UniProtKB/TrEMBL annotation:
The lineage of its organism: Bacteria, Bacillati, Actinomycetota, Actinomycetes, Pseudonocardiales. Residues 1-37 form the signal peptide. It holds the Pfam family Lipase_GDSL_2. Keywords: Signal. This is GDSL-like Lipase/Acylhydrolase family protein. Residues 58-93 are annotated as: Disordered. It comes from Actinokineospora diospyrosa.
Length: 526
């Protein structure tokens, strides 16, 4: 927390009126202390604490044996639902920070005006940062009594009340256990907005066990706080959980943080370039590439029935990128693509890699300039080596993502017609002059054969990771019937000119739309 934030925090803290909840007790045959306990004041105000990340699954405090009995309690495990205040028959209940009771007719001597006052106060602030905001909460929780108890135990915690996290503990504060008239449990927690889907709505709770020498008669209602548990009336041991009710930590609803990596098929070659025109114009990044078309689509979060909208992608893909450019800076990009991935942030990463490592575009151009049908375009040794490198790349990327993140690996769509596929428009003198003049059917078969081999290598590399969070997206035949040589109104690939350009052999905007549709369909996005 910065200096200005701390000053603001202290100013707000002075204005906080401590929320009060009263567990009222009248103890038979016991005299009150000479001076009544003061209402919580300075000690009840939150103070700056060192913070701990808020996340469900915290280790709970060990069970405790209550003094003078064999009874055990397991802190923060009781059912914590709103509970109506309770009192023994014949007692009266009023509202306030300190309330006295008169006993019923059988307890005429029980008008001793003895009570304990639990309190919880908190301060929350949101800190905006580039990688996503986080929220800090500091709180003070405790109990003050106007008489000395034989024993008191207390522990605070924070419950996640966000959707799909109802009732899960995300933070545990300091425990206290002693005899006396007061005790406190304080803490501070940070909700990382990009690391945790919950923590938007939380409730601070204080669990108390109060042991006295006579009986407790009432859990009295009062404003600001609520009971989540009230048991032990009519006994010497009171077990109470009080809470603030759910409050907002100030964070916006969570989204799927998304990084789009890879080469020209992910950067957007073939579509108008409109990103990074100053810093990295040669990357040819476009807002019409497939990743941008996934924005606001909802990605399911496995097993919980929840889905979150996908954020605008962090587009790190760059034309000409090879596998090595995940870890090392590509001259056109000025930074390694690894910089676009965050272990804390990213739930989704998509990519296309491998084509440039095989020099596939150069091989296609050589087919246009010469003849390439006599032998396969790609050597088996090169394909085998690529598979191993891709498997290592996928594992490397996953190591930089969230553990529950999803890596979606796309194959390359075949953009030239497949002579063996009657659903494809074939070479035509009017509509497809460049292909007709420069490529034979035999060459087109070799090109489609190579595209198929690359797809199979990528699929095998994904399977070799053994990681179910790495998914293969097959786009090889996504453009069937819409490849080069299709009518202009049905064309999903950039037109091929006699002088090849960086857009040649790539999708056009309609093609990227289809790639996005394939990602949505094969990942089950909503």
């Amino acid at each position: 927390m910065g200096t200005s934030a701390r000053r603001s925090f202290r100013r707000r803290s002075r204005l906080v009126v401590a929320l009060a909840l009263v567990v009222c007790a009248v103890l038979l045959n016991m005299q009150p202390m000479p001076a009544a306990a003061a209402a919580p004041s300075e000690s009840a105000r939150p103070v700056k604490q060192s913070v701990e990340d808020f996340a469900v699954g915290k280790k709970l405090p060990a069970p405790r044996t209550l003094p003078g009995s064999d009874r055990k309690i397991a802190p923060l495990t009781s059912e914590m639902k709103p509970t109506e205040p309770k009192s023994l028959a014949g007692t009266s209940a009023t509202t306030g920070a300190g309330i006295s009771f008169s006993g019923d007719a059988t307890r005429a001597s029980a008008a001793n005006n003895l009570y304990c006052t639990p309190y919880i106060s908190h301060e929350t602030s949101v800190v905006p940062v580039r990688t996503g905001p986080y929220s800090d909460t500091s709180y003070m929780a405790g109990v003050q009594c106007n008489f000395v108890l034989d024993h008191m135990y207390g522990v605070s915690g924070a419950i996640d009340r966000s959707p799909y996290y109802q009732g899960e503990i995300g933070y545990i504060g300091r425990e206290f256990a002693h005899s006396g008239d007061s005790g406190s449990s304080f803490g501070g927690f940070r909700v990382q907005g990009d690391r945790f889907d919950g923590g938007r709505q939380v409730e601070i709770v204080l669990e108390l066990v109060l042991v006295a020498s006579a009986i407790w008669v009432a859990c009295d209602p009062l404003p600001g706080l609520r009971y989540l548990l009230c048991e032990g009336l009519g006994t010497k041991t009171m077990h109470v959980v009080v809470g603030t009710a759910a409050f907002s930590t100030g964070l916006a609803p969570p989204v799927i943080r998304y990084a789009a990596l890879g080469d020209s098929y992910s950067a957007g070659n073939g579509a108008p370039t409109d990103l990074d025109l100053t810093l990295a114009p040669d990357c040819r990044r476009s807002t019409q590439t497939y990743s941008y078309r996934l924005t606001s689509t909802r990605l399911p979060l496995g097993g919980r029935g929840e889905s979150l909208p996908i954020d605008v992608p962090f587009l790190g893909a760059c034309s000409g990128a090879r596998i090595e450019h995940f870890d090392t800076a590509q001259p056109e990009a000025r930074t390694a693509q690894r910089k676009f991935v965050s272990r804390g942030n990213d739930r989704l990463v998509t990519l296309t890699f491998g084509g440039n490592d095989l020099g596939f575009t150069d091989r296609l151009e050589s087919c246009f300039k010469g003849y390439c049908a006599d032998e396969p375009l790609l050597a088996q040794a090169d394909l085998t080596a690529l598979q191993g490198r891709l498997t290592a790349l996928y594992r490397n990327i996953r190591s930089h993502m969230r553990a529950d993140g999803l890596l979606a690996v796309l194959s390359y769509p075949a953009v030239l017609p497949n002579p063996n596929d009657p659903q494809d428009y074939q070479r035509d003198f009017v509509r497809c002059t460049a292909v007709n003049n420069f490529l034979s059917d035999r060459e087109l078969r070799r090109i489609y054969e190579a595209a198929t081999q690359i797809k199979e290598v990528i699929a095998a590399a994904v399977a070799a990771t053994g990681d179910p969070r790495v998914r293969f997206i097959d786009t090889l035949d996504a453009f069937r019937g819409h490849r080069v040589c299709a009518p202009d109104d049905q064309l999903w690939a950039a037109n091929i000119s006699y002088t090849t350009t960086s857009d040649t052999f790539h999708p056009n905007p309609a093609g990227y739309q289809e790639m996005a549709r394939q990602v949505r369909a094969q990942l089950g996005l909503g």
